[in-house]
Design a protein that fits this description.
tt1808, chain A, six-stranded mixed β-sheet, about 35% strand
């Protein structure tokens, strides 16, 4: 923190821009939390990507993308809402639960510098507990990010021609038009961009991405050559 013309400022470690702190007690708490994530959590930047004031949330944490060809839409690993130091965190329980439900995220944090409450959503049921320190947060993040690492392993198998892995990923990420799945068929000259994947009777049905006509395209399982990319 520093002063210019009698006004207190800081520079956001994520956004890289100068922030006025005077009259913004929540901003001080947020910057302290960000400082911990970047300098003391041991997760940044290899494990987490930090978004600030994103999707109307104070802080969102995402799994760091390690393969540029595998970038499907992911819900945040964690949503963090910061409050001023004197704020009663329990007054904001419904707020964080609403954020987790709307974003399909599993972990939310309420933080006011003095207290930390973690909210875990599983099967639409919320549980909460007070954490002793910010050091309790990295294990929660790693616990959630394991599933994305497993999907990356399946992606690498599908890129090498494993149809079972392609089947799993297309069902998970290609059911709708949220992501674009690009793949190749044996003997095909060009890769195909598809969405709305369905699997039945040893055949794969799909729509060409961006061309939402009624007629589906299809190919036999044995004609699959390899997956190229899955991107949001």
């Amino acid at each position: 923190m520093y002063k210019k013309n009698y006004t207190e400022y800081t520079k956001c470690l994520v956004r890289g821009k100068e922030i006025i702190l005077d009259g913004k007690p929540e901003e001080k708490v947020r910057q302290f939390f960000i400082y911990f994530l970047i300098n003391q959590s041991g997760l940044f930047p290899n494990e987490i990507d930090i978004k600030v004031e994103y999707n109307n949330h104070d802080i969102e944490l995402y799994k760091t993308v390690k393969n540029k060809s595998f970038k499907p839409y992911y819900s945040p690993l964690m949503i963090v809402e910061v409050k001023r130091e004197e704020e009663n965190l329990q007054n904001h329980e419904k707020q964080i639960e609403r954020y987790l439900t709307n974003s399909c995220s599993e972990i939310g944090i309420l933080y006011n510098y003095h207290q930390i409450i973690a909210y875990i959503k599983k099967d639409a049921v919320f549980t909460s507990r007070y954490l002793k320190s910010l050091g309790d947060i990295p294990p929660l993040i790693l616990q959630t990010s394991n599933s994305t690492q497993n999907d990356l392993l399946d992606f690498e198998k599908a890129v090498n021609g494993n149809f079972d892995s392609f089947n799993y990923l297309a069902k998970k990420y290609g059911k709708y038009a949220l992501n674009t799945i690009i793949f190749r068929l044996k003997g095909g000259q060009l890769p195909i961009a598809g969405c709305f994947f369905k699997f039945k009777d040893n055949k794969v049905y799909y729509h060409i991405y961006g061309k939402f006509c009624k007629k589906q395209q299809s190919f036999n399982y044995q004609d699959f050559e390899k997956l190229v990319s899955i991107t949001y």
